[in-house]
Design goal:
The protein is mainly alpha-helical. The chain is 67% helix and 0% strand. The two termini are 29 Å apart. Keywords: Membrane, Transmembrane, Transmembrane helix.
Length: 325
């Protein structure tokens, strides 16, 4: 097996894990706050054990500034998971995952607004096309805006809000230098523990059975710890173009599992929006930089970013998110 083939296998596995997160969230039966709380707890244990075993804690490379930026990104990541998991119940895993995959466009727009990164007319056109696809995928009708299904609209807004927070986390982590992405991911999940502890309903988990705990432990250990390790290993082996294409395994698997487990299937009009988002996403992700190449991001959540060259894999954002997710 060649190095690139191994990278493809690693990233595909990571994206399949990311695409199944929705089912684990729903099947756990826990509230979104509780799911995220236990995800960061078990994820921190898994990632902490991994980086400790690799000897990466010593000589971590954090400065006060980079640690503060990583903590800030962690706040965005935790908030992004809460919103995304809430959106599953108000829309569906399929719709929420596709809407959430608008992250790259928010990164581009916020980069231009907040950091004066150059935005070309062509890029604006692709962003507009993506939002046209988003309107179709969302399935929102004019009557929904004047008294229709409020829960559905709320779910769409939550998925968009999650994508916005992920985009902000990505831009923040792009300013972190000289730190392994595994350590950045570890700090981000650790941040969530004291942040969510006051709001987690631990009493509600007292009666949870082994099955519910199984979903939550797997979500933290495999869909967070193992998934991030696989992603970062793959990023170091693959060119940007292959990373960009493989990123779409995540929403594809999410839609497939949503149909297989819950019988949710997008309508034909919603399906028309998918190729628009895919095309625009690839064009934006693989665009040639207008000036100097942007600094690579380090990883979170729940839908992973795809704009870093392979030699820069040591500083991508920790969410697959997406991460996902």
């Amino acid at each position: 097996m060649t190095t690139e083939t191994k990278g493809i296998a690693q990233l595909t596995t990571a994206m399949v894990l990311s695409g199944t997160i929705g089912v684990f969230v729903v099947e756990s039966g826990a509230s979104s706050l509780n799911v995220v709380f236990f995800r960061v707890v078990f994820g921190a244990l898994a990632l902490g054990a991994y980086v400790a075993a690799r000897g990466w804690i010593r000589g971590h490379g954090f400065t006060r500034r980079s640690l503060a930026l990583t903590v800030l990104a962690g706040l965005f990541i935790v908030g992004n998971w809460i919103l995304l998991f809430e959106s599953y119940g108000n829309t569906s895993i399929s719709v929420a995952s596709v809407v959430y995959h608008m992250q790259p466009f928010f990164v581009v727009v916020f980069g231009a607004l907040l950091f004066r990164e150059r935005l070309t007319a062509a890029t604006l056109g692709w962003v507009a096309l993506a939002f046209a696809g988003l309107v179709l995928v969302s399935g929102v009708r004019p009557e929904d805006l004047t008294g229709g299904d409020g829960h559905y609209l709320l779910g769409i807004g939550q998925a968009l809000g999650a994508a916005v927070l992920y985009g902000l986390a990505t831009l923040v982590v792009k300013r972190v230098r000289g730190v392994r992405p595994h350590l950045i991911a570890l700090v981000q999940v650790v941040v969530g523990i004291p942040l969510l502890l006051p709001f987690a309903d631990l009493g509600a988990m007292g009666g949870a059975g082994a099955g519910a705990w199984g979903w939550l432990v797997t979500l933290g250990v495999f869909h967070t710890g193992v998934m991030y390790v696989l992603m970062y290993a793959a990023y170091a082996k693959l060119p940007t173009a292959k990373i960009a294409v493989l990123a779409f395994v995540y929403p594809a698997v999410a839609m497939l599992t949503d149909w297989a487990v819950y019988g949710h299937l997008m309508g034909w009009l919603q399906a028309l929006g998918l190729p628009l988002i895919v095309l625009a996403s690839l064009k934006v992700t693989l665009r040639k930089p207008a000036a100097a190449p942007a600094a690579p991001a380090a990883a979170a959540g729940s839908a992973p970013r795809t704009d870093a060259p392979r030699e820069a894999a040591a500083s991508r954002t920790a969410t697959p998110v997406a991460s996902g997710e």
